[in-house]
Structure formats: structure tokens, C-alpha cells
User: Fold this.
Amino acid sequence: MEIKVLGPGCANCKKLEDATRKAVEKAGLDATIAKVSDLQEIMGYGVMSTPALVVDGELRLAGRVPSVDDLVALLQRG
Assistant:
């Protein structure tokens, strides 16, 4: 699983990255997590509101920081 946390580096972007790492660990998933701050790449996903989360090339959420448990559920959906 490839996960990208999209955002310019704001506080919420960092919170989403931390929560995503915790969710991956909690769920026992085999995943790589990358932080993407390049605005061109972020816009390439059609994101208008950060932070955003991309899982295996698919935009899964944008504009909010969900709880770790919500992220676990989102990531396990496949």
C-alpha cells in the first residue's frame, strides 16, 4: 500500500501524517507513507483543501484530520 499525505506543511498536515502513521501501525498494514508538499503534485490530484490523503493513487480524503480509528477504517476498506 502506498499512502501520500498531501499538504504544504501546515499544522493540520503534520497532524494527518502523524495520525496516518499511527493508523498504519495500529492496523498492522504494510504501507509506505510519503509526505507531498509540491503544490503542482497536490493540484494534480484535484485537491483544493489540504491536508489530503491519497491511497494507492486514489484520493481518499481532503480538508480534514480524522481520528486514528477513522483512518484505520478508511485504510482497511482497500
Observations:
- Residues 11-27 form the longest helix (17 residues).
